[in-house]
Amino acid sequence: MPEVTVTIGERNFTVACQEGEEHFLRAAAKMIDTEAMVLLRQIGRMPETRMLLMAGLLLADKTAGLEDQLRQSESRAVGLQVEIERLRQAPSPAPVRVEVPVIPAIVLESLSEIAAQAEALAARMEERRAG
Asked: Tens digits of per-residue pLDDT, 97-118?
């Protein structure tokens, strides 16, 4: 069984763990160390057992908050899943009728003629301005 030395609150601890679990042990110790360092900066030196207890309580508090968030998220996910299923089983809405107005050919011809006249007028004005 491998032994790993971890540092928590500026103190070294040697801990045994299962083969292959060293990474997880170091990660957990790092979390405890982070909390212990906060305590040491705020309070200063304290007995080892008190430091570990307080760091553990701080982590437990964070964990409880995360568990609450997880429960709320799971509850919301269930509600959304129910809504998705309800929408899937609901009949499809009736198609929306879209009417596109048809422009009569005479209007298109008139607009084309007006556009041509406007272009001719613009060309004449350019010629006068240039000459």
From this structure: 888 888 888 998 999 999 999 9
